[in-house]
Structure formats: structure tokens, C-alpha cells
Specification:
This protein is an alpha+beta fold. Among the domains are: 119 residues, no CATH class; 68 residues, Sporulation related repeat (Alpha-Beta Plaits), CATH 3.30.70. It is built from twelve helices and four strands. It has a four-stranded antiparallel sheet.
């Protein structure tokens, strides 16, 4: 998940160890509990442990290599879902390092494919819920909101950490909102605030609640007169732009209201060359 952190990675390493140790135990027992085989190859569990340490250290290519080594040794074994999950997390992590849009899209698709394969191996809980949450997050960033809602809803009750549940529920609300399901999104945002009151997702849910249209915020100006001038220029082009006053004297230049998120996305793309910091609100 994109909101992952070191405590989460430590938890996942414990979960994955439990998921794979059974498959490794009999083999290691036959080898006299030695971690490497006669050919000098590392056991799947050791490879997974090393892979997750690499992920924690942001060594994503190394983590993917460790996952692939496990999959080569046991393509359909006890450790397969854990290895595929590691691989997906690593592809997602590569996007944090600053990549081109094409590379980012490719990494998301590779992560998605890994998660789908992992689910096909019938992983146990809570690993199953972690995989579904990550698949839902990837689908959200790919603008596939129906898949995001389905996967995040399925995962929610089986997640064993409150922070993960808060983010999953919040992104469910965002996905509903972006599909124009405003009433349902408001109910979901209310649930985030009720169930996870002190969390960052609860704070963000309050900011999104109540929306019934979208706006493209093109820029922020220190002087309201500058925002008025930019809005007037856009209106001459037939664009419904206006100044919106913000805190500390700032002024925002916004286009809208826009009925659908897809149209807002198109509008933002249209003005990105002139306004590279443009964002969609909410």
C-alpha cells in the first residue's frame, strides 16, 4: 500500500513467515534444519525475509529478484502468495522514487498482475486481506474505481490493523465519489469518521464529504487581483473559471463546477502545460 511504513513491513514479515514456514519446515527437517540445500540455494523463507528487508530499505529491484527466486523454486507452493505480494509491493514502491508517467503506469500494472496471481493461490488471512487492499489501492490509482470498491470492501473486515482499515474505507469513499455516487460516498466518509475518529483518513474524509461536483484548481496566487486577471482571460475562452479566496490572503483559480470526475480529469489535462500544478477538487 502507498501508505505503508516500517511497522507495517515488520508486521507483514511476521505474517508471511507464518504463511510460508509450514511449506519449508519438512524440507528443512529432511536437510537437518539447514537453511541452504546441497546445491547452495537458499530456502524460500530466507529469500522472503531478505526480500522484505530489501523492500523496507527501498531496494525494490532486489526485492523483486528475491520474489522471483521464490516463485522459480515453488511456483505453486505455500510461499507463492507471499512472494507474489512482495513482488507487487515492490513494483508499487518503485513509483515513490520519481519515475516517468509511462514507467509509473507500467509499475502499477505489474503490481496488479502480481496481486491477482497471488489471490489465485488462495492465500490465508490476513495475507488475503493485505493483498486485496493493495489490489484495491492499485485499481484506485488506475482509475478503476469499481474494482477498488469491490476489493477494499472485501478486505476491510479481515484487516487486523486499524490504520489499514481507515485507509481502505477512505479510499472506498473516494472511489464512490469519483463514480458520481455522492450520497453513498458521504455515508462511507461518515463511517470513516465514526470508526476511525482520530486518523488522518477521518480528517480527509471530512474535507471530501458533501461534494456534489468537481473543480479543477489551476493555481494559487498570493494576490487576489492576479487570480481575477487569470480568470478573466479564461472566461474569454469560454471557460467557467473563477477566483476562490483561501486562508492568509491566498486566492485560488478554479474551473467548475464539473459534473463528472472523468470530465474534470480531461479538463485538468487540457491545462497542464500552462498550469502544471493543477489538481482536481475534491
Amino acid at each position: 500500500m502507498r501508505n505503508g511504513n516500517k511497522p507495517l513491513l515488520a508486521t507483514l514479515m511476521i505474517v508471511l513467515a507464518a504463511a510460508t514456514i509450514a511449506g519449508c519446515a519438512s524440507k528443512e527437517k529432511r536437510a537437518g534444519s539447514v537453511a541452504t540445500s546441497a546445491a547452495g540455494k537458499q530456502s524460500p523463507q530466507i529469500l522472503l525475509d531478505e526480500g522484505y528487508r530489501a523492500l523496507e530499505n527501498q531496494q525494490y529491484n532486489d526485492a523483486i529478484a528475491k520474489a522471483d527466486a521464490v516463485l522459480a523454486a515453488t511456483p505453486h507452493g505455500e510461499g507463492t502468495p507471499a512472494a507474489l505480494y512482495l513482488k507487487g509491493r515492490s513494483f508499487e514502491g518503485k513509483n515513490a522514487a520519481g519515475v516517468t508517467e509511462d514507467q509509473a503506469n507500467a509499475n502499477l500494472q505489474s503490481a496488479r498482475e502480481a496481486y491477482i496471481k497471488a489471490l489465485g493461490e488462495n492465500p490465508p488471512q490476513p495475507l488475503n486481506a493485505y493483498i486485496r487492499t493493495s489490489l484495491g489501492n492499485v485499481a484506485y490509482f488506475q482509475d478503476d474505481y469499481q474494482t477498488a470498491i469491490s476489493q477494499l470492501n472485501t478486505a476491510y473486515d479481515n484487516l487486523d490493523r486499524d490504520d489499514l482499515k481507515a485507509w481502505a474505507l477512505y479510499r472506498t469513499g473516494l472511489s464512490q465519489q469519483r463514480q458520481g455516487q455522492f450520497d453513498q460516498a458521504d455515508k462511507t466518509f461518515a463511517a470513516v469518521q465514526q470508526r476511525h475518529a482520530s486518523s488522518l483518513p477521518a480528517q480527509r474524509a471530512r474535507e471530501h464529504q458533501g461534494a456534489r461536483a468537481f473543480y479543477v484548481q489551476l493555481a494559487t496566487f498570493a494576490q487576489p487581483a492576479s487570480a481575477d486577471k487569470a480568470a478573466a482571460e479564461l472566461k474569454k475562452q469560454g471557460v467557467a473559471a473563477a477566483r476562490v479566496d483561501g486562508p492568509e490572503g491566498r486566492a485560488y483559480l478554479r474551473i467548475g463546477p464539473i459534473a463528472s470526475y472523468n470530465q474534470a480529469h480531461y479538463t485538468r489535462a487540457r491545462f497542464l502545460n500552462k498550469y502544471p500544478d493543477a489538481v482536481i477538487i475534491p
